[in-house]
Amino acid sequence: MTETAPSREKLESRARNVLLFQLSKGAKSKAQLRAILVKREIPEDIAEPILDRFEESGLIDDAQFANVIVNSRRRYKGLSKSAIKRELSTKGVAVEVIEEAISEITSEQEFETAKELAVKRLRTMSRLEAAVQERRLSGYLARKGYGGGVVYAAIRYAREQAVKSEA
Q1: CA separation for the pair 151, 28 (Å, rounded)
Q2: Which residues contact 130 (CB under 8 A, 6 or more apart)?
Q3: What dotted CATH number matches 8-60?
Q4: Among the four 16, 69, 139, 155, which has the fewest Cβ within 10 Å?
């Protein structure tokens, strides 16, 4: 008994079902969905037209996806522009779409977020030595994607707030 390859119609149907299932679990970029179809062994000549149709119908929208990521990462994780840019890039979002999505973030907003994170984190470190606090705070903010200047200014601000609250 020989096994025959699935028909083009079956592969197209399977590709649509895979895409709908993936999108029901959460937003994904076109590149992520393309990679999933490759893993599911859907030929490129079948996958691309279906991806394009999903994009035309608005089911796949990299610009909207990027905006959602930017807003959630800033609000819930306090990530910097550079960290968000890196994440979107790894998800296969085009550079121009990334730039558009992060263009709303100002340096002042980034600095405010870094200060808030530093103040919150410093409160949990009150029993540690100052040098340990600074090392841990700087590492924490650096992992969030903030540069050295912003990190040290935010730590300085957090220390000033701590002194004010003690007085």
Answers
A1: 32
A2: none
A3: 1.10.10
A4: 139
Phi (first) and psi of residue 6, to 5 degrees: -65, 150
Assess whether pLDDT exceeds 70 at residue 152.
yes
Tens digit of each residue's pLDDT (9 = 90 or more) over 35-51 = 999 999 999 999 999 99
pLDDT given for residue 6 in this prediction: 81
Confirm if 15 and 47 have CB atoms less than 8 A apart: yes
* Cβ atoms of residues 141 and 114 within 8 Å: yes
Q: What is the rounded distance in angstroms from the CA atom of residue 87 to the CA atom of residue 66?
A: 10
pTM for this one?
0.84
Distance CA 43, CA 102 (A): 34
Distances (CA, A) of 124 to 8, 19, 57, 119: 59, 44, 48, 9
